[in-house]
Design goal:
By secondary structure, this protein is mainly alpha-helical. It has 28 helices and two strands. The protein is 66% helix and 1% strand. The N terminus is likely disordered.
Length: 986
């Protein structure tokens, strides 16, 4: 085994990358076989050092030996972190990267490929095939002998081993077992009573020899097995010795490396490491100093907050509390002296919230309830220092409430606004009642009763005072809400600005990241911290970053606290306004997380606009109360047209002003006015309808004179002025009444009722001009009035109702013609009235204009009925007279004389009343009726167109009739065509 110390030659640096020892060409040396040292001399006690207390190859290289290892050699060689046990000893200390590194190929060696071995393989391929064939045909003699000897020996050893009892081969064989011991050594053969006999001695010797034989068989078998495997065993021993040699070489290399490392540590590292430690110590001192300054600043928080609250600087106080709480949580966490400061600041913050809500409520109450007469100014129009301070106070309160997310502060203002609106009406009524001696406020205590006791001028002055007060009230509310809205918009703009700055900052940090990474990597490679197992450069960088962050935060906190102190100290001075704006801007930048989101701010802006709309609605509602309180006893319905027009104009003016001021179209006051207007229109219409009915009932249907004022009224209508002219005081130079009414060059003979009807429908038109909102209702009422005039006149004239109502003896043709002409005058004005109302209606309301079409048709039908009545009167006369006609001398006959006389009376009655065209058309119809009756009578008498004596007599009478009719005025050119009366000759 000693000779096996040197192994067979193995080339160094084989293709498999395993280091192999070269053959030793020197003469063999005899050296003693040494056993390997015990690499684990003692078991671990569990008191070993941690990772930071591991062996140091720099500072402890003289003291560390292989005996200091806590693991045995196989554990050192087999890295448990690897899937394959292919690592060596150095990976445990130097890491995986020590062995598993990529080696760059040499530029001086060519790249050998399979093509370089092509010629050699072609040359040796034939020889290799021949060699393999020979090995198959003729095996090696030594191999055959070896195999046969191994087989023979194996069979022989098997046979010998089978002689050994099986008990010795069992795994559970143990001599301390009594049963096993008795089986191996049967003592029963040696337990004779008389002592040892020769037979016992022989048995013991035989047993000893038998056991010795078994031992020899086993030893021979073991020796044979060892001889068969001696080469592998000796190879393992030689590899063990080779490994010891490599370990010794490695130990020497490590010792040299440790020496060099110690020299580097002594020369190059100890000084810089000391400098780094000194820098870290200095940084710690700076951090401690900054921490103490921060504690001193935080210690002054509560007095500073109290000072800020004394000057109503809620924003600065809240910002200081927020900053202090942030510092307590981040920088001063765990400091025993500040353990109660956080809870105290929270309670102080809740107190500030209550103070801000109460102050805002007091501000709203005082601003809305101050006198509108003595102090009509609003915030935006006052240039006094007190007003400026009030505005700054409001801005500070709003910003503080927004910062605390108290977004319901507008509800407080809304409640105060409603209460102030109620007080405005009460105050105005009380002030006006003081100047009215007829009202005893001690007896009449209710405001509604006091308003009903006022006369209309007194109440109207009260209403105008209420309107003026509410306009000032809305201006004041709008100014306050504008200040609030500006603060919200300022916060919204600040949030957007902060987001933009964050985006720009994030982009810059991304660009600087590669440069910073390279610096960190360079510092990481600078030094190796052995005493803690960390890189000093990393620790220093962390310390510097923390120090910079602490300095930034400390400077920020210090600047904020200092700024708060400056504000608190200078809030009583004149420069407080500018410093407050600067503080607000800084609060915008620092309190971004505390501020509401953009969605919440936009919702607040919408609520501000809705609050302004609500203020307009509340003002209108209170004015409606004043209006309805007066109208409860129906006094507004009894107003004259002029008074109601004044009321309507005042209401419309107030509504228009509030719409321009608030941008809200409130409908409550307009609705109340519309309701009163409907009642007024109803009374207005009933009065005029009753008046028209009385006029018609007293009308005798005689032609009336036309006063000059009615002629002027008609002329103004012709000029396009659909209004009532002002009444003139009669004087001596006034014109005399005329017989006819001239309308566009035509004469109209009218009755007095129609003249008043023209004035009545002009009153309707004038009312629509003054109150456009009642145009639809007024149109239907006017339509009803015109229908009433048509139906009532029809009843009185055509229906002969005037005989009983007025006491007329009969309804004459002149009455009929006069009624027809009056109806024609009304029909002439219906399109003018329609056009006037069309200008006052909305396009969607044009459907109501169809009433005028129906009225026109009714009037035309009535006119046609009157014409038919006139023709019917003459028709009955012709029938009565011509039924007695006889063809005999003298000529002209009495019958024809009577007909011509009645025709002359008819013409005399209607020629002055009806126009010429209408008169001609009427007489054409009368002539047709005359010819029909004459033709019928002649047919009854048997007179034909035969040229006989009777025919001649009739021709004379017809000629007399034609001459008399054409002699009438305006009938000269009338073609009577009397030839149709003759029957044709049979």
């Amino acid at each position: 085994m000693a000779s096996s110390h040197s192994s067979s030659p193995v080339p160094r640096g084989g293709r498999d990358g395993i280091y192999r020892k070269e053959r030793d060409t020197s003469p063999p040396r005899c050296r003693s076989i040494r056993s390997l040292p015990d690499v684990c001399p003692k078991e671990p006690t569990g008191e070993g050092r941690g990772l930071c207390d591991g062996p140091s190859v720099v500072a402890e290289h003289d003291r560390w030996t292989v005996y200091s290892s806590k693991v045995n050699l196989p554990a050192a060689l087999n890295d448990p972190r690897l899937a394959k046990r292919e690592s060596d000893f150095f990976t445990k200390t130097w890491g995986l990267d020590f062995a598993e590194t990529e080696v760059m190929p040499s530029f001086y060696l060519p790249n050998i490929t399979r093509e370089h071995f092509g010629p050699y393989l072609q040359e040796m391929a034939q020889r290799e095939r021949i060699h393999e064939r020979c090995k198959t045909i003729c095996p090696n003699k030594d191999d055959v002998d070896a195999v046969s000897s191994i087989t023979t020996n194996h069979d022989k050893s098997r046979a010998e081993l089978e002689q050994v009892p099986k008990i010795f081969m069992k795994p559970e064989f143990a001599l301390e077992d009594p049963a096993t011991f008795n089986t191996v050594l049967p003592w029963s053969h040696f337990n004779s009573a008389g002592g040892k006999s020769s037979r016992d001695v022989a048995s013991s010797k035989l047993l000893q020899e038998k056991l010795s034989h078994y031992l020899d068989v086993v030893e021979v078998s073991i020796a044979r097995q060892i001889s068969l495997r001696s080469e592998a065993f000796f190879h393992a021993m030689s590899s063990q010795h080779e490994l010891q040699d490599r370990l010794q070489e490695t130990q020497r290399a490590v010792a040299v490396l440790r020496g060099r490392t110690a020299a580097i540590d002594r020369v190059m590292c100890q000084g810089p490491l000391q400098a780094l430690r000194t820098a870290l110590t200095r940084n710690n001192c700076v951090k401690l100093h900054n921490k103490l300054k921060l504690m001193a600043a935080v210690h002054q928080t509560q007095p500073t907050v109290q000072l800020l609250l004394s000057t109503s600087e809620f924003v600065g106080a809240l910002e200081l509390i927020s900053t202090t709480k942030e510092v307590l949580q981040q920088e001063l966490q765990g400091i025993h002296s500040f353990r109660h400061l956080g809870s105290q600041l929270c309670e102080l913050e809740k107190l500030i919230d209550k103070m801000m809500v109460e102050d805002f409520s007091m501000y709203a109450r005082s601003d809305l309830n101050r006198s509108l007469r003595d102090e009509p100014q609003v915030l935006e129009k006052v240039h006094q220092p007190n007003a400026a301070s009030q505005k700054e106070r409001l801005e500070s309160l709003v910003f503080g409430l927004l910062r605390q997310r108290k977004l319901d502060f507008l509800d407080i203002y809304s409640d105060e606004m409603i209460m102030a609106a109620k007080a405005i009406v009460s105050q105005c009524v009380a002030e006006n009642v003081l100047h009215i001696e007829e009202i005893d406020t001690e007896v009449v205590t209710k405001l509604a009763d006091q308003m009903r006791l006022m006369t209309f001028p007194q109440w109207f002055e009260l209403l105008k005072t209420v309107f003026e007060s509410f306009l000032l009230f809305l201006q004041r509310i709008k100014a306050t809400l504008s200040v609030v809205k500006n603060v919200v918009l300022e916060v919204l703009a600040s949030n957007q600005k902060n987001r933009l700055l964050e985006e720009v900052g994030s982009g810059a940090s991304v660009q600087e990241a590669p440069h910073g990474t390279s610096l960190l990597q360079g510092e990481a490679e600078l030094a190796y911290l052995t005493h803690e197992g960390l890189f000093i450069s990393d620790a220093l960088n962390d310390a510097q970053q923390q120090q910079q962050a602490v300095q930034d935060q400390s400077s920020t906190v210090g600047s904020r606290i200092q700024q708060s102190r400056v504000e608190a100290a200078s809030s009583d001075s004149a420069s407080g306004t500018s410093e407050t704006s600067v503080s607000r801007e800084q609060s915008f930048m620092s309190g971004e997380n505390m501020m509401p989101t953009d969605l919440e701010l936009n919702r607040v802006i919408n609520n501000i606009q809705e609050l302004l709309y609500n203020a307009s609605d509340v003002s209108h509602d209170r004015c409606v109360k004043v209006l309805t309180a007066r109208a409860k006893d129906g006094s507004l319905e009894r107003l004259s047209s002029a008074e109601f027009v004044c009321l309507s104009q005042a209401v419309e003016g107030f509504v228009r002003d509030t719409e321009e001021l608030c941008g809200r179209r409130s409908v409550s006051l307009r609705g109340a006015l519309q309701s009163q207007a409907n009642r007024f229109v109803h009374r207005f219409h009933e009065e005029r309808k009753t008046k028209l009915s009385l006029l018609l009932d007293n009308e005798r249907w005689k032609q009336a004179e036309v006063p000059a004022e009615f002629q002027d009224l008609v002329n103004s209508i012709a000029d396009g002025r659909i209004t009532l002219p002002e009444r003139k005081i009669p004087g001596p130079e006034d014109r005399k009444p005329t017989e006819f009414l001239l309308v566009n060059g035509q004469k109209y003979a009218v009755v007095g009722t129609v003249l008043l009807l023209i004035r009545i429908f002009l009153e309707y038109c004038q009312c629509v001009n003054d109150i456009p909102s009642i145009a639809t209702d007024m149109l239907t009422r006017l339509s009803d009035l015109l229908k009433h005039f048509n139906s009532r006149s029809c009843q009185l004239v055509l229906g002969a109702g005037a005989l009983q109502v007025v006491g007329l003896k009969t309804i004459t043709t002149k009455n009929l013609a006069l009624a027809s002409r009056c109806l024609q005058l009304v029909v002439h004005y219906i399109p003018i009235i329609r056009a006037h109302f069309e200008t006052k209606l909305q396009p969607k309301q044009f459907s109501v204009l169809r009433h005028f079409d129906h009225i026109t048709k009714d009037y035309n039908d009535h006119i046609a009925e009157i014409s038919a009545k006139l023709v019917a009167i003459m028709d009955s006369l012709f029938e009565k007279v011509l039924s007695k006609y006889e063809v005999k001398a003298p000529m002209p006959s009495a019958c024809f004389r009577n007909v011509c006389k009645q025709m002359a009376k008819m013409h005399e009655a209607i020629s002055e009343l009806l126009p010429e065209e209408q008169t001609q058309m009427l007489f054409l119809r009368i002539n047709a009726s005359y010819k029909m009756h004459l033709k019928r009578q002649l047919a009854r008498l048997g007179v034909v167109n035969d040229g006989g004596p009777q025919h001649g007599l009739v021709v004379v009478d017809v000629a007399f009739y034609t001459e008399n009719v054409q002699a009438l005025k305006s009938l000269e050119r009338l073609d009577l065509n009397m030839a149709e009366i003759w029957e044709q000759k049979r």
